[in-house]
Amino acid sequence: MKRKTQFFTLLMVISLLTYNVLAIQRFPKPEFESGYKVPATQVTKIQPVIFVYIDLLVFIGCMSLITWLVLKKRSRKAVFWLSLFSLLYFGFYRKGCICPVGSVQNVALAIFNPEYNIHFTAVAFFIIPLGFTLFFGRTFCAGVCPLGALQDLFAFRPVSLKPWIRYLLGLIPFLYLGLAVLFAATGTDFIVCRYDPFVGFFRHNATWLMFSIGGALLLAGVFIARPYCRFLCPYGVLLNLVSRVSRRHLSIAPATCINCRLCENVCPYDAIDKPTGLGVKNDNRELVKKLIIYFFITPVLVVLCGWTVSKYHEDFAHVNFKVRLAQEMMTIDSKSETAVIPTEVTTFRSSGQMVENLYKEAAAIVKRFYIGSWIMGGFIGLVFGLTLARLTIFRYRNEYLANKGNCLSCARCLEYCPVKKGPGTGD
Amino acid sequence: MDDDKKIKRRDFINTGIRLGIGAGLGAIAIGLTTRSVSGETIWQLDPSKCVQCGNCAKSCVLQTSAVKCVHVTDMCGYCDLCSGYLHQGTKDLNTAAENRLCPTGAIVRTYVEEPYFEYKIVEELCNGCGKCVKGCGSFGNGSLQLQIQQKLCVNCNQCAIARTCPAEAFSRVDRKTPYLLKGFEG
User: Fold this and answer.
1) pLDDT, tens digit, 9 for 90 and up, residues A409-426
2) Is residue B185 part of a domain?
């Protein structure tokens, strides 16, 4: 009796084992008679982790060096060579994919989605330029950002733009930032990376559409210097805001400005504020009245823009894969079976997941988009309101000053200043 | 005198805002780094989820995709009638172009001994379309599998193929285990 049980157990185990083998391997590996040896599976090796830390060290080194060059050494030539190095290293060598501009999205996703594990280099690349800007102005833009360095090479014949055009185009980056954060925070897409116009040049590889957008921006950059930095870059928005309260900043004159007007037209980015005339100061009353009006208009704008943008939350949500899949499932369920079934749907059906769970998940994502689009719209409204209000604020200046927000610290103007450094020489 | 006071007030406000921003940045930095992952992650696709839709060949930011067919030789049956190498229903079992499944001719077949053949992927020619993977998986052992060849991958912040993958097979994996091959030993 005992032996019989043993035999049956053995038989069962063997049959289970062979069944398993057959299930995975329909055709067993042959036993070769000619002494042939099975070659190893070909997979390529990955770069060791140490490169990530080298990148971070090079980045911090470049940031420190550029800050010193702009603020202390005051040399345009040195800034140019460092920006060229950054272009070659971060752009063409590292293929442009460790960049603070895109890190905005990683940070946004990490803040809104606790399940997302952000790598600390992404945090570092986000924080370090902002930290430097907080103390020294936008030195990152001057010579570390590879996107900026590439455009800077093309600024041959910069023309001065009318202030109203600059203000109007200057609103685009806020919109772009809002969209980028909305899509990143809902875990949908990283649009800043997807529509990065210059990364294709760094990789020598892109779709013709992205190449032509990048090429068009570079060509436009011959006349409108650094168009991406000024009128698109979402990270530039943050740098601009932070730079306005920076502790120190590039100063055109090393000592007191003598109002010689030599630097007046040299800034390719229209970031030099001229001295104000003395007479303008008298219409203060009119401006204060306007400021009060804008103060009341701003909340209305916030609500209005929030409501407008939230009307489109379903269109935004449609970018999300899960939402799109759920929608496709619904339309196919309601239609006859003869319709062409997309691959996503067949894949989902064969994966054996529950449709109800998918619908639930999609509904949750759409709701997040609804809230997110309200916030984004409100943010845009606030930017509109504050931009209007800022037009009324008048600041008296008796010297040529770099506009702390818009100045990219490229150091071009420094060469034109005849004032010599040192106490007493300027006065 | 009046102007001096104004400048001082402005400086005071600026310093206040600066401290606020500094504190905010510090909070973000500390909050996120304590949660962040220790090891660097890279993109890889899970062959057990892959449905060979062909998007890998089209969606990668590189013009020739970083996704390639990988031949797990340990699983291969060395068949003469290889459903990953030959079209379904070919009359003659030879290397004529009309019989071959791979659109770029990236699979090389060499004779080992009767009746076995060795199959090798020429990585430069492979475009990651997954036709051979589908063929091998449906009639053979499934030893042909799609994988991101990590040397080619530029490790985008958001993988462009992951965005279009219908099976959600792409994910970030630990750098220490860069490949997710099925039935792969050693």
Assistant:
1) 999 999 999 998 765 443
2) no
Chain A residues 245-284 with a CB less than 8 Å from chain B: 245-247
CATH number, domain with residue B118 = 3.30.70
| Residue B17 and residue B84 in one domain | no
- Assigned token pair, A22: 């057959």
* Same domain for B111 and B159: yes
Instruction: Let me know if residue B186 belongs to a domain.
Output: no
Cα–Cα–Cα angle for A54, A55, A60, nearest 5°?
100
Across the strands, what pairs with B111? B117
Residues B47 and B113 grouped into a single domain: yes
Domain hosting residue B147, numbered range: 41-174
Q: What are the phi and psi torsion angles at A95 (to 5°)?
A: 60, 25
- Residue A374 tokens read as 């309200």
Asked if B101 and B156 sit in the same domain, the reply is yes
Two tokens, residue B161: 């193929």
Whether residues B154 and B79 share a domain: the answer is: yes
Strand-pair partners of B37: A119
Find the CB nearest A120 among B25, B33, B139: B33
**Total domain count for chain B?**
2
- Could you report the per-residue pLDDT of A287-311, keeping only the tens digit for each? 788 888 998 999 999 999 999 999 9
Query: Are the Cβ atoms of B116 and A30 closer than 8 angstroms?
Result: yes
> Among partner residues A41, A46, A131, which is closest to B42 by beta-carbon distance?
A46
Q: A346 vs chain B: nearest CA distance in angstroms? A: 9
Note whether residue B56 is domain-resident. Answer: yes
Contact A203/B79, CB-based, under 8 Å?
Answer: no
- Structural contact between residues B74 and B182, judged by C-beta atoms closer than 8 angstroms: no
Considering the domain architecture, whether residues B5 and B57 belong to the same structural domain is answered as: no
Q: Which of residues 1-60 of B touch A (CB under 8 A)?
A: 3, 14-15, 17-18, 21-22, 25, 28-29, 32-33, 35-37, 39-42, 49, 51, 53
Tell me the pLDDT of chain A (427 aa) as tens digits.
Answer: 456 666 555 555 554 444 444 345 678 888 888 888 888 888 888 877 788 889 999 999 999 999 999 999 999 999 999 999 999 999 999 888 778 999 999 999 999 988 887 888 889 999 999 999 999 999 999 999 999 999 999 999 999 999 999 999 999 999 999 999 999 999 899 999 989 999 989 988 888 898 999 999 999 999 999 999 999 999 999 999 999 999 999 999 998 899 999 998 899 999 999 988 765 555 677 878 888 899 899 999 999 999 999 999 999 999 999 999 999 888 887 766 666 788 888 888 888 888 899 999 999 999 999 999 999 999 999 999 999 888 888 778 888 999 999 999 999 999 999 998 765 443 3
Residue A51 in contact with partner chain B when CB distance is under 8 A = no
Q: Are residues B58 and B2 in the same domain?
A: no
Candidate from B25, B116, B154 with C-beta closest to A97: B154
Tell me whether A353 touches chain B (CB under 8 Å): no
Evaluate whether residue B183 is within a structural domain. Answer: no
CA A377 to chain centre: 19
Q: Which of A132, A245, A319 to mutate to test the interface with B (most CBs of B within 10 A)?
A: A245
Please give the Cα distance from A170 to A78 (Å, whole number): 29
* Minimal CA separation from B158 to chain A, in Å: 6
The answer, yes or no, to whether ipTM is higher than 0.90 is no
Q: By C-alpha distance, which of A298, A166, A305, A190 is closest to A240?
A: A166
Domain boundaries, chain A: 52-270+402-416, 281-392
Q: Are residues B2 and B79 in the same domain?
A: no
